[in-house]
Amino acid sequence: MPANTLKDHKAEQRIVGTRVWLSLFFMVVLVFVLIARLFYLQVLRYDEMSTQSEENRVLLQTIPPVRGLIYDTHGKLLAMNRSSRSLTIVRERAGDLDQLIENISTLVPVTDNERRRFDQRLRRRRPYEPIPLKFNLNDEQIATIAVNQFRLPGVEIDADLVRYYPEGCIFSHSVGYVGRINDRELRTLDPALYSGTHVTGKIGLEKYYESILLGKPGYQEVETNARGRVLRVLNQVPSEPGKDLELYLDTELQKVAIEALDGRRGAIVAMDPKTGGVLAMVSNPSFDPNLFVTGIDYETFNGLNKNIERPLYNRATLGEYPPASTIKPVVGLALLANGIVDKNTRIYDQGWFQLPGSEHRFRNWKRRGDGWVNLPKAIFRSNDTFFYNQAGKLGIDRMHDFLSQFGLGRRTGIDIGEERPGLLPSREWKRGVYGQPWYPGETVIAIIGQGYNLATPLQLAEFTTILANRGKHVQPRLVKEDMPDIQSPDWGHDVDVSDEDWDLIIDSMEDVIKNPRGTAHWRIGRDLKYRIAGKTGTAQVVSIPQGEEYDAEQLKEFERDHSLFVAFAPIEDPQIAISVIVENDKGAANVAKTIMDHYLLPRLNPSLTNGLSVDEALKAKVRN
Amino acid sequence: MAEQDFVRQLNDDHGFTQTRGWSETFHIDFLLVGLLMILCCAGLLILYSASGKDMGVVIRQSLYMLVGFVGMGVIAQLSPRMLMRFSPWMYAGGVVLLLAVLFMGIQSKGAQRWIQLPFIRFQPSEIIKLIMPIVVAAYLANRPLPPSFRDIAVTLTIIGVPVILIAKQPDLGTSLLIGSSGAFVLLLAGLRKRLIFSAIMLAIPAVFVFWQFLMRDYQKQRVLTFLNPESDPWGAGWNIIQSKIAIGSGGLYGKGWLQGTQSHLDFLPESHTDFIIAVLAEEMGLVGCLMLLAIYALIIGRGFFITLKAQTLFGRLLAGSITLTFFVYIFVNIGMVSGLLPVVGVPLPFVSRGGTSLVTLMAGFGMLMSVHTHKTFHHRMR
Q1: Residue A54's closest chain B neighbor by CA?
Q2: Which one, out of A94, A543, B51, B169, has a CA that is 20 to 30 A from the CA of B135?
Q3: Helices B355-373 and B124-141: angle between axes, nearest 10 degrees
Q4: Could you report the per-residue pLDDT of B212-260, keeping only the tens digit for each?
Q5: How distant is the alpha carbon of residue A555 from its chain centre?
Q6: Does B184 lie at the interface with A, CB-CB under 8 angstroms?
Q7: What SS3 state is found at A266?
Q8: Chain A partners of B200 at a C-beta cutoff of 8 Å?
Q9: How would you classify the pairing of strands A245-246 and A266-271?
């Protein structure tokens, strides 16, 4: 090697030696950097780091409370919590997700929809959190997964309590349903109370009594590993289950009522006049609330929401219909109480009424007229002309003031959130909405419950209850016990009318059914086993042009008149007050009669229940 | 016989040893062996805790240590002259193996680092770790110092080829270690300060090229995460955040052996491999860390002693490079675990779990001993 001969070994050793000492110096510096770093973390930031370490280790876990149950009046469960098993995947441990789901689908079916929803959840959750793929596994599926667990890494079966409505669509509008908390609710709900709870009441009692049903979550301090797996429970505060609700609703009666509607659109409210308890509340057609609990898919929801028959819509409290002739008894009371008519006042009805100085004819429903008509006849014949004649004397102001005592035009305050106030027109109302004065002709149509008048079936039931109680107001409600946290408004005042006037009106209402000329006699008035007071009504859906004949056949189905009926029975001791509306069809009275028969006959004839009280008999039936 | 006398005389002249002792006979540096044994015992204690009291892991690791000590002894028997003579062949073989990895290696966890032979699977990059300082030292030892530009260029090529091949696998930690072990030889050989300065200037565009063309996304992610670990606290930042918590919560005296919650409750990932120092820091505190650093310091001190006492230029360059590389292991590992440096896969010598790097390190120390005990080499060459 020629280069070698030229090498100055001493000098070279010196160079290397210098460099070694130099690097040693740098190393010492770097080691001090390391030591400084360790000192910084372990001494200067010790407090902070040990706190974080403790937080890492101890996790505060929520124990979700068990949601309160809902029972009908006889102790039958209307809303319960069912244990549901779901298949979840922990992504961190799953390996190839597509392959894993492929493997799962050979054991239990995985629909495209489930897969899509899983992918959506996947994006939001942490890798160590179990993400549900399938809900509501049956025993066989659980067993299949368990047997194959070894080749399904990251797959777990989770148990969860899921709301279940065993009666399906029977009570969907009154009991309502729970659903997953959405973004808007997330902002308003108390996060402390809802930690660990994924659902909240969406409509009906489930929403109105949410704070009662929810309960209080408990907490446990657990030692976890980094994956959140609980290794040890350190401390525990148990959760408080939500309170149960007992309703006035009667499942049997509700089913009878739905059956009586025979598939027609309509609403029914039956109340106990003594308590105000709602015995049945029907809005037909209905839907299965269980669809909403674990999340309804878009197609199904759209199908329900866009359905022309509007199954999601609670007709009983949201449906605003012209009350039509059903308010005639109340109007009659107003005429009596204001001294405008007495039992002897009569008019001659030739089939129509004209305001002085006007050509317009307000027609009676029976175009040929009813001849001489007094107030009782005006009620049992449902004569319009009689009332037209009194309109000017009563006036809109007095009519409005008197009728509002019966709950028309304002919410009843029932313990369901979804309620509309209906409309009881007044001078002020018209000026406010239309900026126009009130015209006398409007009083003429308002007095027979048409025109601007609107009422919900619940309001019809409420004023019928007040009639049944001869003025005593009771608050319509579904839940038997008063709930301290829930303040339901109570606007009701008893109506002060003389006994004589009450007798006259109620007798007239009895004649609606009993008198052979009564408007409901031929439908339900024969072979009566108890005394019924009632009133029919026919609500126009489209107004019939002046001078044209009404022909149901010519009108499209949705333009036909609604049939209304309100009633209470037995007259001497009212036990049930009822309002029925059948949309675009006839026969509301028959529906009411069927329900009253079912409710009253066993109560009036104890031999049918082996001497037990009806309540006892029905409770015994539920228990079996 | 005569030759041996001659040797002894020369030794006497240099005043290194009066007599030919145990150390020379067996080519073993007993002080170094003693220090390494202490380190191994400490390592096993930490590993036992970090692995969650898994005796199996500890036994496997001690078997590797045994293999490592034996390998160290065997390599120590090879004279530096032999290493020097065969270094070009070893280098060529190593590069061929790396190319083989690139084209027919086994993939695992996104990296292609292994070669499968009928009965064994191994990482050629580990072999390069040993070859690199030898070949660079051998090349420079035969040239006048300080090295000329041409020599520097050749040396950088020698270093660059395997470094790029390994970075391609990708294995950033190893290519870094190998690159620096070669660079250290160059530095020790008296690279001019002006050149070091311009190298640093060159490094800036080089970093850009590296970032743009050679680094994989996950590696870039690591660097970005290192700069701001809180940006991805549930993903790549998790390790850094958790290991800092582990270290910091250890405090001055630690939570006690086997008492660390961060590691035992699985908050600290890779707690028994690259991040094992966090376990020591959590359980033994600053005091424990300083004690470990002290053992390392003694080993490094011994390495430099050997470097300074080496009789040949080759020996000095090799020993110095091995010692410095050993230091880089420690500094990079502790630096990355404590959040000073980005996370690159560098194990903590003799403590982290894993047989390969252990055996390689031991082999390196074997070469160090060979340099120290084959003291006649320089004179024989004359």
Answers
A1: B261
A2: B169
A3: 20
A4: 777 777 777 767 766 766 666 656 667 788 888 889 888 899 888 888 8
A5: 33
A6: yes
A7: strand
A8: none
A9: unpaired
| pLDDT tens figures, A482-515 | 877 676 666 667 888 899 999 999 999 999 999 9
Interatomic CA distance for residues A161 and A172, integer angstroms = 20
Sort out which chain B residues have CB atoms less than 8 A from A4's CB and list them: 142
**Helix, strand counts (H, E) of chain A:** 26, 19
CB-based contact B293 A31, cutoff 8 Å: yes
* Nearest of B369, B370, B371 to residue B29 by alpha carbon: B369
**Residue in B250, B293, B304 closest to A20 by CB:** B304
Contacts of A231 in chain B (CB under 8 A): 265
What does the alpha-carbon distance between residue A33 and residue A28 come to, in Å, rounded to a whole number?
9
Place of tokens 């659903």: A179
**Across the interface, which of A6, A31, A49 has its CB nearest the CB of B249?**
A49
Whether B290 and chain A come into contact, CB under 8 Å, resolves to yes
Token pair for A550: 């009404």
Q: What is the three-state SS of B97-111? A: HHHHHHHHCEEECCE
In this prediction, residue A543 has a pLDDT band, given cuts at 50, 70 and 90, of low
Which residues make beta-bridge pairs with A479? A247
Compute the distance between CA of residue B206 and CA of residue A34 in angstroms, rounded to an integer: 27
Size of interface A-B (CB pairs under 8 A): 146
Interface pTM, i.e. ipTM: 0.87
pLDDT at residue B6, rounded to an integer: 45
- Give the DSSP per-residue string, A133-200: EE-S--HHHHHHHHHTGGGSTTEEEEEEEEEE-TTGGGSHHHH-EEEE--HHHHHHS-HHHHTT--EE
pLDDT at residue A125, rounded to an integer: 65
Q: Confirm whether A325 is a catalytic residue.
A: yes
Residues of chain B found within 8 Å of residue A27, distances taken between Cβ atoms? 300, 324, 327
Active-site choice (A172, A325, A508, A563): A325
- Residues A224-265 have pLDDT tens digits of 766 566 777 777 888 899 999 999 999 999 999 999 999 999
Cα A480 from Cα B121, distance rounded (Å): 77
Hey, are the CB atoms on A49 and B234 less than 8 Å from each other? no
Q: What is the pLDDT of residues A149-195, one digit of tens each?
A: 888 888 888 888 889 999 989 999 999 999 888 878 878 888 778 87
